[in-house]
Amino acid sequence: MTKKLVIKVTAGADSPERCSQAFTVAAVAVASGVEVSLWLTGESAWFALPGRAAEFALPHAAPLPDLLDAILAGGSVTLCSQCAARREITEADVLEGVRIAGAQVFVQEALGEDTQALVY
Which Gene3D superfamilies does the annotation name (predicted)? Predict the structure, then answer.
């Protein structure tokens, strides 16, 4: 079994099914004992802000706030630094437990030993 799963989600409310799939896979992996690193990029960057996940709705899907809470409780969530800058999001703005980091950190994580990377 893969020891670490790095997931980059680029979709937000603009593509709700892709977005929900990424968060669902991450939460299920955390619940299964897999080390998970979820990266918020593009339109998913907004979910790093308090209350934004609660605004997301997709019929027959788990509530995004619940999935995000599960991921934060057992994994890590990173907001892309360029995506944050384009949206004028700072470290002071994000949910507790969310870090802001750039491509170098993503590449380092994705190329780690026993790591599988997925992009949604």
Answer: DsrEFH-like (3.40.1260.10)
Q: Using DSSP, state whether 103 is helix, strand or coil.
A: helix
Specify whether the CB–CB gap between 22 and 7 falls below 8 A.
Answer: yes
* pLDDT for residue 1: 57
| CA atoms in the 13 A half-sphere facing the CB of 91 | 4
Two structure tokens written together for 5: 């799963």
What are 83-95's pLDDT values in tens digits?
Answer: 999 999 999 999 9
Place of tokens 């409780």: 73
Break the chain into its structural domains and give their ranges: 4-119
What is the bridge-based pairing of β-strands 115-119 and 35-40? Answer: unpaired
Report whether CATH 2.30.30.40 matches the domain 4-119: no
Span 22-57, pLDDT tens digits? 999 999 999 999 999 999 999 999 999 999 999 999
Let me know: does 8 contact 42? Beta carbons within 8 Å.
no
Distance (Å, rounded) from C-alpha 8 to C-alpha 78? 9
Across all residues in the chain, what is the average pLDDT? 96
